[in-house]
Predict the structure.
Amino acid sequence: MANKFKEKQVVDLKERFKGSPDFILTDYRGLSVSEISDLRSRLREHGVQFKVVKNNLAVIALKDLGVDVVEEYFSGPTSVAFAGDEAPSAARALVDFGGKTSLTIKAGYIDGTFFGPDGVVQVSKLPGRKGLLSRLAGCFNSILSRFAGDMRSVVSSFAGALQALEQKKGE
């Protein structure tokens, strides 16, 4: 019975890791139930799921998915923040929460690479998806505004040339 239960947990973890290839590992030791609930609600605002996992089952699930697992990150109490496409937002929320509580960041796995807690802190300083999209939209807007200004300049220069030609023919 326990073996089938563990197999089901591995399948569930594999599905979660497939659905969210970017994730952050934390040590939740010392957090109260209310603090964990608060963390989950903060992460949920960014579309991030937070789950306590058994280390050996998480390692099995990741290895089945072909991930080169750094097993040193899977020791002691481990929870996973499944970041989806919002890794910077998830990292920022975890770093902020860890600064106020006993939550410890163990590692991050983003774009197919494991890195330590310092890397997660660096990722937390990046703008989120919405911030990057707004910057991109601003760049496009700037380019289009310049293009429109240049086109107005060309049209007015052409009109001025036509007017000068008309005056010259009139003389």
Summary: The mean pLDDT is 89. DSSP finds six helices and five strands in the chain. The helical segments are 2-19, 33-44, 55-64, 87-100, 117-124, 129-170. Residues 129-170 form the longest helix (42 residues).
